[in-house]
Amino acid sequence: MDGLLVSGLILIAVIGLVLAAFQLPGTWLILVAAAGYDWYYDFGRIGWIWLAILVAIAVAAEIFDGLAGALMAKRAGASRQAMFGALLGGFIGMIALTIPIPIIGTILGGIVGCFVGAVVGELSVREGYAAGAKVGISAVVGRILGLVAKTGAAVVIAGVTVVLAALALFNGILSEAALL
User: What single DSSP character describes residue 128?
Assistant: First the structure.
């Protein structure tokens, strides 16, 4: 039964990684699976401390992913309106393009929405498309960095979860062998 549960956890971790790469809640799927697995063993396989660390990594990645576009736009000299536009546009774009273009639409919508939101926000304050385009491109670079960071966090969370579960399984096998 232990091996089956670890195999299921690995499968869920792989599915979660794919979902996270497409800006879907894969990281949270991995965490829920890790918590469920650990709950089954009375929190003795992964442990509360590791679960708390993994949740902290996921929350930090979500915050960074959400703010990266706006922060990069700010670095390019964006106005507050452009930063807000990048943030709002990214979220609206993700939602708007997810429906007509499933899976990949989330990524594409986030990038396009971030760019358009930053440009519109910047043009509401300043004239000149060059400044708006510079801010928009910087916002897109930030959005992509956020995507990479969030996917990287999912890889770390999945890796730690699978390694801890596999080690617990391996230790259990060794304990049973020692009793023979």
Answer: -
